[in-house]
Amino acid sequence: MNSPILGLDIGLHRTGVALSESGLIAEPLTTIEWQLPHSHTLISSLLELIRRYTINTVVIGLPLSENNGTTNQAQKTAHLIQQLEAAIRKAGLHVEIITLNEFHSTQDAAVYFPDVDKDAAAAAVILQNYLESV
To answer: C-alpha dihedral over 61, 65, 69, 73, to 10 degrees?
Structure first.
């Protein structure tokens, strides 16, 4: 069996988290509340989830434009990804980080998971898009 995969929809106040234990289906897991400049709250919560679920791959949505252009939010997300990668290395973990354009993930999440927290649902959509592309 493959290692579980974590999916993230990183926001500046809330980060949605999804999990695929099978490698086939993504499910919303939780939402982490945090605020800049306190990214350490987010990073430590993510490290805890990576350890708890023995994660080897994390798929993170990048808020690019429809034509894959960089946005301000994508730049902020990329900075947080760098912080996460540094924390993963420092913790001695071996985790692959994959980014995916998350354009329309929040709108799709409202359709596919209408009764679930919107950020965790968006993370599930991001992760499911990745699972269907590999």
So the answer is: -60
The predicted-structure confidence for 12-70, as pLDDT tens digits, reads as follows: 899 999 999 988 999 999 999 998 788 899 999 999 999 999 999 999 999 887 787 88
Residues 6+ apart with CB under 8 A from 116: 28, 109, 124
What count of other Cβ atoms lies within 10 Å of the Cβ of residue 104? 12
In a 3-state reduction of DSSP, which class is residue 61?
A: strand
H-helix segments, the chain: 39-52, 72-90, 105-112, 118-133
- Sheet with strand 27-33: strands edge to edge: 27-33, 14-20, 5-10, 57-62, 96-101
Residues forming beta bridges with residue 5, ordered by sequence position:
20, 57
Write the CA distances from 65 to 42, 59, 61, 70, 119, integer angstroms: 25, 18, 12, 7, 19
pTM metric for this prediction:
0.91
Q: Which residues of 75-85 are buried (b: 16+ CB within 10 A; e: fewer)?
A: eebeebbeebe
Q: 11: how many CB neighbours lie within 10 A of its CB?
A: 23
